[in-house]
Write a structure and sequence with these properties.
26% of the residues lie in helices and 27% in strands. By secondary structure, the protein is an alpha/beta fold. The protein is globular, with a radius of gyration of 20 Å.
């Protein structure tokens, strides 16, 4: 047995801070955590659990929809690893069934090849609402087919997340998906409060990019947003780039809902200096951290998880431990991986990151492999 170790001056294990600790791990699993025997060998900084991002459309100059291949998954993964993402779901927005199949095959191949960090796949559509489609291609939004039901329930994809609009899919179909282990999120929807709650009762367990592309909370109709904020069991992704959600709206959501998880909704510019890219025939332009099409509609984000965690500290007025939980243990719990991911403890996967005094990622280990 080949045992690796990393010593650090401070460790946050997901529950508490410990001083001068050594993490021992064999391949991908942590086998022990002990007091550091040689303090002069401790890395300067704080090691925390790695970030898990359940909504990654692209990075490193690559859009998953445009290139649904194992090679593209490797490139996108490397781009996000430098910002502390140690587990992620390649995300395919609304597209043809043929493209969905290619994406699923690429994820299955990536997992079979043990590409570190690929936990499954997220299909953001195509069973959405035209009224709340955002930049999704309207001509590709459609009712769910038996072929798609079979695709979503494949057993070689790891964790499968599907974003749907409750008005575009029946509660019986939601029940069928969740019974097969698919994680159903609600989003890109103009559903009423009642429709949203019925979908939750049918087994939906999450909301995709809270506040964005969903029916709003109003005085006489709480909408999907109201259902999301009031339900204490479901999880909600939050894009904390200061653009998608006002900081005070985010703070209100954090106070009301315990199961917030940070997501990036990242596009190809992440990890590059790229300022434009093509998206279904349209040119998306980056101005600062804002990505928009020619009509000014937001088209994903240029956000990375390290920045999201820093933003959470500032915008939500919380400490590092609380912000890190939104990017680690909460998404791990949502994915049903809380016994393996989201903490640095014996028996957990050795996916963790080293932060400097400014909370910036300076080193990272993904499933026992040092990647930066």
């Amino acid at each position: 047995m080949s045992t690796n170790k990393v010593s650090v001056e401070r460790l946050f294990d997901g529950e508490r801070y410990l001083q001068e600790q050594t993490i021992y791990f064999d391949h991908e699993k942590i086998i022990a955590i002990e007091d550091c025997r040689a303090r002069d060998q401790c890395l300067t900084g704080t090691i925390i659990p790695g970030f898990i991002d359940v909504q990654v459309n692209g990075g490193g100059g690559v859009l998953f929809n445009e290139t649904p291949t194992k090679s593209a998954i490797e490139t996108i993964g490397r781009a996000h690893q430098q910002f502390g993402t140690t587990g992620w779901l390649p995300t395919l927005v609304t597209d043809s069934f043929e493209k969905m199949t290619l994406a699923a095959d690429a994820v299955a191949e990536a997992r079979l090849s043990n590409i570190a960090g690929v936990l499954g796949i997220h299909f953001e559509g195509p069973h959405l609402s035209i009224a709340k489609k955002g930049v999704h291609e309207a001509s590709l939004i459609r009712d769910i087919s038996e072929q798609e039901m079979q695709l979503f329930t494949r057993q070689d994809l790891g964790k499968v997340v599907v974003t749907v609009a409750p008005e575009s899919i029946s509660n019986e179909q939601i029940e069928q998906l969740t019974a097969a282990g698919v994680l159903v999120c609600l989003g890109h929807s103009n559903a009423s409060y009642q429709q949203s709650n019925l979908a939750l009762n049918a087994g939906a367990s999450g909301f995709t990019h809270l506040f964005n592309a969903m029916s709003p909370f109003t005085s006489r109709e709480p909408g999907m947003l109201g259902a999301a904020l009031l339900d204490q069991n479901s999880y909600a992704g939050l894009i904390l780039d200061g653009i998608h959600v006002h900081p005070d709206s985010a703070r209100l959501a954090y106070k009301l809902k315990p199961n917030i998880m940070l997501v990036t909704d990242a596009m190809p510019p992440v990890g590059t200096t790229q300022n434009t890219f093509e998206f279904f025939g349209a040119t998306i332009v980056r101005e600062g951290d804002r990505l928009t099409d020619s009509d000014g509609r937001l088209a994903g984000s240029a956000l990375d998880m390290n920045t999201a965690v820093k933003n959470a500290k500032k915008m939500l007025n919380i400490e590092l431990a609380e912000a890190a939980a939104l990017a680690s243990i909460n998404p791990a719990n949502f994915l049903g991986l809380k016994q393996r991911y989201g903490k640095i403890q014996e028996g957990y996967v050795a996916s963790f990151i080293l932060l400097d005094k400014n909370d910036s990622v300076c080193e990272s280990w993904v499933e026992g492999k040092k990647v930066i």
